[in-house]
Amino acid sequence: MGILNEFKAFAVKGNVVDMAVGIIIGAAFGKIVSSFVGDVVMPPLGLLIGGVDFSDLAITLKAAEGDLPAVVMSYGKFIQTVVDFTIVAFAIFMGVKAINRLKKEEEAAPAAPPAPSAEEKLLSEIRDLLKEKQ
């Protein structure tokens, strides 16, 4: 029973729950970014570079024989994945940069000085009374 209680305490800690939520949101965000790259960014980029689709580039290492399929090294898919990653990484970089800029502006705003504590008020009153007696 001790191990089950320890596991329960571990599983419901805030860090584990926060991590799980982050992973789920990250997976959903990944789908959005993949769609953005594949459906919005890559078509104009492909048009700009002459309609080249890297994913079709491949080298046939061994031709098909009878029922056996050809052995193909699809290096174009790798190049396409690297291009997609670069675009996604840049988009995330720009997003983080914008968030950091907003945080800096928020930190730069001067905070109001804290009100004196009850002890400070009492000590000020005592100081003032002592000054009056002199």
TrEMBL record:
The keyword Transmembrane is assigned to this record: yes
Signal peptide location: none
Protein topology in the membrane: Multi-pass membrane protein
Coiled coil: none
A Gene Ontology molecular function term of the record: mechanosensitive monoatomic ion channel activity
Keywords: Cell inner membrane, Cell membrane, Ion channel, Ion transport, Membrane, Transmembrane, Transmembrane helix, Transport
Organism domain of life: Bacteria
SUPFAM superfamilies: Gated mechanosensitive channel (SSF81330)
Keyword flag Transmembrane: yes
InterPro entries hit by this protein: Mechanosensitive_channel_CS, MS_channel, MSC/AndL, MscL_channel
Transmembrane segments: 16-37, 78-96
UniProt GO cellular component terms: plasma membrane
Family: Belongs to the MscL family.
PANTHER family per the UniProt record, alphabetical: LARGE-CONDUCTANCE MECHANOSENSITIVE CHANNEL, MECHANOSENSITIVE CHANNEL MSCL
Function: Channel that opens in response to stretch forces in the membrane lipid bilayer. May participate in the regulation of osmotic pressure changes within the cell.
Name recorded for this polypeptide: Large-conductance mechanosensitive channel
Organism of this sequence: Atopomonas hussainii
